[in-house]
Amino acid sequence: MEEPQPHIQCRTGDIAPYVLLPGDPGRIDAIAAQLDRWEPVAHNREYRTITGTFQGMPVSATSTVIGGPSTAIAVEELVRTGARVLVRIGSAGALQPHIRVGDLVVAVGAVREEGASAMYVPVAYPAVSDPAVLTALLKAADGLGITAHAGVVRSHDSFYTDREDEVTRFWASKGVLGSDMETATLLTVARLRGARAGSVLNVVVPADGGLEAGINDLVAGKEAARQGETAEIRVALHALRDLWTEESC
Question: Rounded CA gap, 199 and 86, in Å?
């Protein structure tokens, strides 16, 4: 019998070709609530996986935890067990004043300021979303009437560096829409491993707001952050459903 992958503890056949990647294991419950049916597959450390269906489409969801290294591990092991299209549904801090809490940011590409992707390939290699996945995400948001901003995001490794405010202001001045910790790793590793990927992010911190307050609002289930979380899951599921429908024809 095939040995399970060491971290996500999944085998071939456990994972659908279409996969949602929340960071928080708790967000798996919010995803499950929008599926037609689902069953638990594995839960090891903070990697929690379910597989089910959404409007007939086979879909899995695996939590990647926080940051690039754990995301890279999840992507590697998911691709080995059958994942072909991966969409991150995470949270972000806005860098532009017109982006509100609860809005979504769909990543066209990502600034690679995290270290995980640099262990694979030099930073000159671009972290870009798969064009079909990107198009499907934007089409789904538009069809659902959900506010989504498309553009470049920045992925980084720490909230608490002494230079974070300075660095954030720099990237904001270059038109970067928001910051997270995982998108650049996902887009880079997925492309190197022959999978397609995209990222849709729920804004939980406004450009002029406090990081810790915004994250606490998300954890506490404050209304705007909660609605954004529900919205990003809906957008990702409908986008993947559309891709599945096109590929099944």
Answer: 8
Find the Cα–Cα–Cα–Cα dihedral 219, 98, 132, 182, rounded to 10°. -40
Tokens coding 77: 């092991």
**Number of DSSP helices (H) and strands (E) in the chain, helices first:** 7, 10
Instruction: Encode pLDDT of 5-56 as tens digits.
Output: 999 999 999 999 999 999 999 999 999 999 999 999 999 999 999 999 999 9
CA distance 70 to 47: 9
Six-digit token string for 225: 């952050």
Helix orientation angle between 223-248 and 211-220, rounded to the nearest 10 degrees: 70
- In contact, 196 and 85? CB cutoff 8 Å: yes
**How far apart are the C-alpha atoms of 62 and 52, rounded to whole Å?**
12
Residue 154's closest CA among 170, 134, 140? Answer: 170
CA gap 64, 74 in Å, rounded: 6
- pTM, to two decimals: 0.95
